Amino acid sequence: MRRLRRKPLPKKAAEKLKKEQQTAAALRRSKTLDVDKTWSRSRRTKPLKSVFQVLKLMAGSRERCMYCGDSQGTDIEHFWPKAKYPARMFRWPNLLLGCTSCGRDYKGQKFPLSNKRKPLLVDPTSDDPWDHLDFDPATGNLAPRYDSKGNPEAKGEQTVDVLGLDGRRESLALGYKRSFKRIRDRILQIMTAQNLDVSLLITQLREDDEHGVLGWCFRGAGMNEAPFSDFRQTYPVEWAACSKAFRFD
Ligand SMILES: [Zn+2]
């Protein structure tokens, strides 16, 4: 899963969202709001199409789903589900790019909250996924990170469960595994090379990483594991340049 920076919307799109949210609020007050109808009518308009385009830009050149990082992002996804939280239906920070599988088969209407009513699901545009998630290179599965007392981190645990990142989605795990192997091989190769061109390395690693695994290797738990820990010790300056480059995916 990639950590993504939210981009600003074009003025017309931002204004449209604001207006649509006000209209939805009025309909809600008069108890006549049909969430699906309101959304699908709006979704067909030009400003909402440009919202979709901005989300695709945010997702990177491969335009993958912001949750799984594997399938193509095919539609606008509501982080807080719109049926249950219509007050966020047209709020820009609530909109992500999602795939059919994450949206329909896994997340659906599931949206776990903490006791303080905070989402227990990683939002890759406001959280660093690798603060909450760990990765198993042997299986390609994701797991929650564990705290110093040996307890799974709650947001990581729920994210893995809701999105089925624990091996239930076989092709997803295979994809993560392949991305990891390319990154690992690249670092192993660098460790024995005579010259190290760090900007070339950064470009190559970005190409190697189809799933956002670089975040695990350079920011997450992976940085303490070989070959990344060796790379950090042997090439501290180059390591720092990579970490800076991979702060966001
Ligand atoms: Zn997905």
Per-chain topology:
Elements: H1 11-29, H2 35-43, H3 46-59, E1 75-78, E2 95-98, H4 100-107, H5 129-132, E3 133-136, E4 141-144, H6 154-163, H7 170-192, H8 198-208, H9 214-218, H10 228-234, H11 236-245
Antiparallel strand pairs: 1-2, 3-4
Bound molecules: zinc ion.
Zinc ion binds next to helix 4.
| Largest sheet: number of strands, sense, barrel closure | 2 strands, antiparallel
- Overall shape: it is elongated
- Distinct ligand kinds: zinc ion
Q: Provide the spatial order of strands within the biggest beta sheet.
A: 1-2
Strand share of the residues? 5-15%
Secondary-structure content class: mainly alpha
Number of strands: 4
